Amino acid sequence: MAEIKKAFVCGDPIKHSRSPLIHGHWLDQYNIKGSYEAVAVSPDELPQFMRRMIEDDWAGGNFTIPHKQAVFERLDNVDDAACAIGAVNTVWIESGKLCGGNTDAYGFAANLDAQVPLWRSAQTAMVFGAGGAARAVVFALLTAGIGKIFLVNRTLERAEELANSFGIAVNAMNWDDAAAKLPEADLLINTTSLGMDGQPAFPLELSNARIDAIASDIVYVPLETPFLAMAKMRGLQTSDGLGMLLHQATPGFEKWFGLKPQVDEVLRQRIIDDLNGGTKQ
Question: Which residues form the Quinate/shikimate 5-dehydrogenase/glutamyl-tRNA reductase domain (predicted)?
Fold first, then answer.
């Protein structure tokens, strides 16, 4: 009988996660004997949960809020992406050791490859926001060879802290200074919630953005964010954030179940239908 491998996503809370739907789709599609389940784990329970991972016969799993930083310190081996980003979202077992990585940068780049492949010819990028997601995006951009990145944030000190951790290619600035640099950017990436319901308006007009620039948003609810709507009005090519969610899941699935799954339109539509159904918030 074939071995039944099992994986998980854990967080606190965890009901919002669409990872079980994504991985369950692939398990069915490829007829793999395995399972992927959501597990509620509080911060206090995390150390014991990780100690028991091998004993409980997990192949590995995903860690989400609030565990991405805490997991980092409890692993035997961590990949370069996780070290640069400072957080782990994917864990697997290798030679009896707990290994971890961060697939957010991979997912971001793979999504752009699928939606707007010309992004790799960009020379200059402008990233809005300076949180954990921005760190993953900056790592992806630098890995792709983009030579200049403007990092824009309301709190300049936070942007400077992130920029300094990546070196001279990343330049921190506030929103007032970003307007003058906007025409230089081939690639515009929003990692903030600005413009969304209940949030302040996006503080930068895109009227002087290059018409051949590409605009991307990592948010996928809604699929067309206010930032992307504004970019489309300017005539820019755009990339929504749903593909990042889907592509970041593929490396973990391959680690746990031994097959690299494909992100296709069937899966994308399945997640869109779920989003529209409003069953998970």
Answer: 122-193
Instruction: Consult the annotation and say whether 131 binds a ligand.
Output: yes
Task: Mark whether 97 is an active-site residue.
Answer: no
5, 33, 68, 148: the active-site residue: 68
CATH number of 5-103+249-277: 3.40.50.10860
- 155 belongs to an annotated ligand binding site: yes
CA 264 to chain centre: 18
- pLDDT tens for each residue of 149-198: 999 999 999 999 999 999 999 999 999 999 999 999 999 999 999 998 88
Q: CATH 3.40.50.720 occupies which residues in the chain? A: 106-242
Please compute the mean of the pLDDT values over residues 4-12 and round it to a whole number: 96
Q: Where in the chain is the domain with CATH 3.40.50.10860?
A: 5-103+249-277
Give DSSP secondary structure letters for 5-73: EEEEEEESS-TT--HHHHHHHHHHHTT--EEEEEEE--TTTHHHHHHTTTTTT--EEEE-TT-HHHHHT
220 is in an annotated binding site: yes
The per-residue pLDDT for 2 is 52
Looking at CATH, the fold of the domain delimited by 106-242 is given as: Rossmann fold (3.40.50)
Q: Please state the pTM of the whole predicted model.
A: 0.95
Residue of 246, 199, 248, 257 whose CA lies nearest to 225: 199
Q: Measuring CA to CA, which residue among 161, 233, 147, 227 is closest to residue 189?
A: 227
51 is in an annotated binding site: no
* Residue 277: per-residue pLDDT: 83
